[in-house]
Structure to design on (389 residues):
């Protein structure tokens, strides 16, 4: 039996590889601390769980859900965008519910790009931008994110022939894996670029509610006229510790939203209605105090890691958002080699930067989604191991 040729172009999925390493080490009786995956360790707020439990008792919620998201859920997303970002959305034409952002990213790519088209992807970045372009048969053009440019893409370096063939351009701020942030001036430049080149700007806003030292992430849709060329993905996974619930939304350009909805209706059956109702509760229960509590916890953990890295001789600027720390490997080591050595010598799993793209080579990513006492233990182990590198 032969698989489709496109499968040969896909690298092993990073997080499956990390899971395999962890299972192997734990089977050997090792006390492994996993700092490789960004999956919140704190519980979903109780009132959201209770909303799900109540909604799950209603027989009508166990029938097929609305393919595009219930009217109430989409209305709530539109209201949230107005409350949080001051952005007006038509809840019918400019919002669609998603089974998590990952699903929406995949389906949008299939709807917008195909053979002969180009998808502009930041490098390093969330691997799904790349893999879904490959599955759609499109060409990927990576734009390097470097410390010299504050991990922002230099749009002026994109060649003319790439611009002419590009159908989509991904941006992700606050950024995974680098932790970098962008201001509205950057989004203005991105919107102007995409308008001039007739490219769909795709903004992945997964980490919008994580912020330190007073930082609050903007939305690309706050730029005047952005909806002409922009679709944005907003997820409940990270803000509310709901990664396993799979509930999100795409908002913005009505043509892109409609195309995404049309493809989805042919491929899936929407989000379980009870989960949507819990999502409505999450967004309408004045969550700012909860966000502040979460951010205090992550900031404490951020500072623990930054201090430990400094003790290793690594001066890493503290990120203003996300729950990731992006730091360089020793000069003589690849990211995969350094990641392997931390597992072998410290029983600490880190994500190798090369898994996020060629420009991620020479970097490692630490996730802060680990209990604080375990994070401290991991840092002590890493310091001891680093001295042996």
């Amino acid at each position: 039996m032969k698989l489709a040729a496109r499968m040969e172009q896909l690298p092993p999925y990073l997080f499956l590889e990390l899971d395999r390493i962890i299972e192997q080490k734990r089977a050997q009786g090792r006390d492994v601390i996993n700092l490789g995956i960004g999956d919140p360790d704190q519980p979903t707020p109780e009132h959201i769980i209770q909303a799900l439990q109540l909604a799950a008792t209603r027989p009508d919620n166990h029938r097929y859900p609305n393919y595009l998201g219930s009217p109430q859920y989409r209305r709530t997303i539109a209201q949230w965008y107005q409350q949080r970002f001051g952005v007006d959305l038509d809840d019918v034409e400019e919002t669609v519910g998603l089974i998590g952002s990952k699903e929406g990213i995949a389906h949008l790519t299939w709807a917008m790009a195909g053979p002969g088209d180009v998808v502009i992807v930041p490098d390093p970045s969330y691997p799904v931008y790349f893999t879904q372009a490959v599955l759609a048969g499109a060409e990927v053009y990576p734009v390097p994110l470097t410390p010299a440019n504050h991990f922002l893409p230099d749009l002026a370096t994109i060649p003319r022939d790439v611009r002419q063939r590009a159908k989509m351009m991904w941006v992700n701020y606050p950024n995974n894996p680098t932790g970098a942030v962008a201001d509205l001036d950057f989004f203005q430049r991105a919107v102007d670029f995409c308008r001039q080149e007739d490219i769909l700007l795709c903004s992945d806003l997964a980490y919008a509610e994580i912020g330190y030292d007073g930082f609050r992430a903007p939305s690309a849709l706050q730029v005047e006229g952005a909806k002409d060329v922009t679709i944005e993905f907003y997820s409940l996974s990270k803000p509310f510790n709901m990664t396993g619930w799979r509930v999100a939304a795409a908002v913005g350009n009505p043509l892109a939203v409609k195309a995404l909805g049309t493809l989805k209706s042919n491929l899936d059956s929407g989000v379980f209605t009870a989960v949507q109702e819990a999502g409505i509760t999450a967004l309408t229960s004045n969550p700012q105090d909860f966000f502040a509590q979460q951010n205090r916890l992550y900031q404490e953990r951020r500072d623990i890691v930054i201090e430990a890295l400094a003790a290793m001789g690594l001066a890493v600027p503290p990120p203003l958002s996300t729950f990731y720390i992006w730091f360089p490997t020793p000069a003589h080591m690849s990211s995969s080699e350094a990641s392997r050595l931390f597992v072998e010598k410290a029983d600490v799993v880190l994500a190798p930067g090369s898994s996020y793209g060629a420009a991620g080579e020479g970097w490692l990513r630490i996730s802060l989604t680990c209990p604080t006492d375990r994070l401290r233990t991991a840092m002590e182990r890493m310091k001891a191991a680093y001295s042996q590198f």
